[in-house]
Amino acid sequence: MALLRRDLALALRHGIDLLAVVLFFLAAGALFPFAIGPEPALLARIAAGIVVAMAALAALLSLDRLFAADFEDGGLDLIFLSPLPLELAAMAKVLVHWLTTGLPLLLAAPILGLLLHLPGELYGILLLALIGITLALSLLGGLGAGLTLGARRGGILLAFIVLPLFVPVLILGMGAVLAVARGDSPVAALQLLLALDLGLLAACPWALAGALRQVLQ
Amino acid sequence: MHRFANPGRFQRLATRVLPWLKGLTALSFLAGLYLALLASPPDYQQGETVRIMYVHVPAAWMALFAYLLLGLASASSLIWRHPLADIAAQALSPIGAAFTLVALATGSLWGKPMWGTYWVWDARLTSFLLLFFLYLGHMALLDAFDDRNRGRRSAAVLALVGLVNLPIIKFSVDWWNTLHQPASITRMDGPSIDPSMLWPLLTMAVAFHLFLLTALLERMRTLLMEARLRAQRQARFEAMQAEQG
């Protein structure tokens, strides 16, 4: 808990970093109307997809510093030596990442949706799917950050490693949104997304702690 | 298994076995290619292009098989700190990536006359593309650290995560979109493919397995020699420094 509070306080003290993620998300999303033309009908068709893809990129960009600062100043060694299980400490880190990027992105998503003419009936389901998607991104991304900690060019490598693992989450999350767009029930896709999230939640702490132990040995 | 863990013993064994393996691989490829390209009939629908299958299908099998081996090697390197398992994992991922690329490329060339396009976002194609990315990620991670052991251990964790993830990827893309034909060899009621095509295919599969084994042993041998060379150079460098200091 103390670790959670400390990391949150650190993140909030550098509030501009939080803002940068959201600003990147909005700016990257706003590129699309320039790239494909400002036609409302075309934009409305692909708006949900753009929002989710840009959220994924924004979350990945903020991941490479997840453990890096603590790794460089030795804080990670202290966490390793403390009686707290490394699995729990790793989860605290991942939770902080979600609170400081997933949540702000969730709040900013309707704004980007508005800019891209997202159809009104899709806002609710998109936000619901985004909760599951950003959670999975924080878990998978945390794992990637642990694996690439201290690597040359860690950031790009991290994104490259995480993206293939992230595809199932993206498919299921967008499956729910597309179902609503077709007028079907999104329940099946949402349940599968939830199942995937729970599976990741069960598996990622061990994998991440394993990865961190390799670093600290 | 642990009896062969000694790199020196492995080296001697590999050196003795490899020439035989190479000969056997060449022979089975000759037989397989003869059967596949000359002795087997063209398909009644697909004509001569069906012969692409004799390369495409075994390559795809090997791509998956190599990932399974990679996962096993990574697990034993993490659990038992097996030095040879590390070497095997390092040797396997470029081989697996190559097979995946061959499967993708031949599939793409086959897809053009059959489906009218080089690429579709079909489930199997997509999962193979992702498999290719997993291999490349493994190779990149291996090479990303100044400390080699660190890269090996991180890559081993990644390979295991990928092994767990592969069925999920497979399931999710199947659910997403499918155009590829269903499996026609491994079915409960026996293969639906005609024997005149099954035999060349199986011969090619044997040849591909042998080739995988040959390439793996050869690469492991090279990597071990490389490691020894590096250790010798390091020792010489330190001795020189000791003389000067």
TrEMBL record, chain A:
Function comment: Required for the export of heme to the periplasm for the biogenesis of c-type cytochromes.
Protein name, per record: Heme exporter protein B
Membrane topology: Multi-pass membrane protein
Subcellular location: Cell inner membrane
Organism taxonomic ancestry: Bacteria, Pseudomonadati, Pseudomonadota, Alphaproteobacteria, Rhodospirillales
GO cellular component: plasma membrane
Pfam family, one: CcmB
Molecular-function GO terms, alphabetical: heme transmembrane transporter activity
Organism: Dongia mobilis
Family membership: Belongs to the CcmB/CycW/HelB family.
TM stretches of this protein: 16-36, 42-63, 94-116, 122-149, 156-181, 187-212
InterPro entries linked: Cyt_c_biogenesis_CcmB (IPR003544), Cyt_c_CcmB_bac (IPR026031)
Superkingdom of the organism of origin: Bacteria
GO BP, sorted A to Z: cytochrome c biosynthetic process; cytochrome complex assembly
Predominant localisation class: membrane
Keywords in alphabetical order: Cell inner membrane, Cell membrane, Cytochrome c-type biogenesis, Membrane, Transmembrane, Transmembrane helix, Transport
UniProtKB/TrEMBL annotation, chain B:
Protein name, per record: Heme exporter protein C
GO molecular function, one term: heme transmembrane transporter activity
Gene Ontology CC terms: plasma membrane
Membrane disposition: Multi-pass membrane protein
NCBIfam families: ccmC
Domain of life: Bacteria
Record localization: Cell inner membrane; Membrane
Keywords: Cell inner membrane, Cell membrane, Cytochrome c-type biogenesis, Membrane, Transmembrane, Transmembrane helix, Transport
GO biological process, one term: cytochrome complex assembly
TM ranges: 20-39, 59-80, 92-111, 123-142, 154-173, 197-217
Family statement: Belongs to the CcmC/CycZ/HelC family.
